[in-house]
Amino acid sequence: MLLCMCGGEIMCDIKNMIFNTNGIISIDDFKNNGITKYEIQKLINEGKISRLYRGIYLINGYFPDEFYLFQKRFKNTVFSYNTACYLLGYSERTPYSFDITTYSGDGTRNFDTNVKIHYIKRENLDLGKIKVNTPMGNEVFCYDRERILCDLIGGNNTNIDKEENNEIVRKMFDERKIDTVKLINYAKKLGYEKKVRTVMEVLI
Q1: Distances from the Cα of 58 to the Cαs of 5, 9, 15, 132, 165, in angstroms?
Q2: What is residue 14's predicted lDDT score, i.e. its pLDDT?
Q3: Treating both helix axes as pointing N-terminal to C-terminal, what angle do 162-174 and 145-154 enclose, rounded to 10 degrees?
Q4: Pairing relation of β-strands 56-59 and 129-133?
Q5: Which one of 5, 9, 30, 52 is separated from 114 by 20 to 30 angstroms, measured CA to CA?
Q6: Where are the chain's structural domains?
Q7: What does the radius of gyration of the chain's CA atoms come to, in whole angstroms?
Q8: Which of 185, 94, 98 has the alpha carbon at shortest distance from 146?
Q9: Can you tell me the mean pLDDT for 3-17?
């Protein structure tokens, strides 16, 4: 057992939580494992955990995974554009800011992290959303190749230079892993079909 509290009356084994999140634990994670607010405060007082943000804690001795931590805080977001390219291995440049997509009407938030927000219709937020591992091994949501292509070709992205944009698009097509049926389906839903078909005629 990793933790023992309340004179041994409550034995809290949170090793699985730590293993799955590299030390980042939310209030819901604690609740789901039967750990009360009183016990959480006791852990804070004993220096075993620290409060990072409201409802999010870090086990002492661990470093926060910024990608995972961001989506723990802002659940209606998907990593997109530059950040998605990085997470899928199409860019070696570590993002100095997060590209995130959320739905229109979600409201502008006071992010304390450097982010570039891309708004989309709510029904298209999950289009192409997949789970990937961060460099620290935690699961987060980003877009798949086909959705990234749609955004790079048809979207309004001012946070990536044109040369790098074109290089990533060529790299994706050169791999011959693109599902063209899925790509066109995404493009139709996003309103990028004409632009995407024009690029496909050149690169395929």
Answers
A1: 18, 24, 13, 22, 36
A2: 62
A3: 140
A4: unpaired
A5: 30
A6: 3-59, 74-203
A7: 20
A8: 185
A9: 47
Question: Any idea of the CA torsion for 183, 200, 144, 135, to the nearest 10 degrees?
Answer: 180
Q: Can you tell me the mean pLDDT for 67-93? A: 92
**Cβ-based neighbours of 59, under 8 Å, separated by 6 or more:** 18, 23, 24, 25, 48, 49
By the 10 Å C-beta count (0-12 exposed, 13-18 middle, 19+ buried), 189 is classed as: middle
The secondary structure element, H or E, covering residue 86 is helix 81-87
Q: How many residues does the chain have?
A: 204
Number of neighbours of residue 155 by Cβ within 10 angstroms: 18
Whole-number pLDDT of residue 8: 36
Q: What is the DSSP string of 127-182?
A: TTEEEEE-TTS-EEEEE-HHHHHHHHHHS---SS-HHHHHHHHHHHHHTT---HHH
Cβ atoms of 39 and 57 within 8 Å: the answer is no
Confidence at 158, pLDDT banded by 50, 70, 90: low
The predicted-structure confidence for 111-130, as pLDDT tens digits, reads as follows 767 888 888 999 999 999 99
Helix/strand/coil for 189 = helix
d(CA 156, CA 175): 25
The Cα 166–Cα 150 span in angstroms is 13
SS3 110: coil
Task: Name residues whose C-beta falls within 8 Å of residue 109's C-beta, 6 or more positions apart in sequence.
Answer: 74
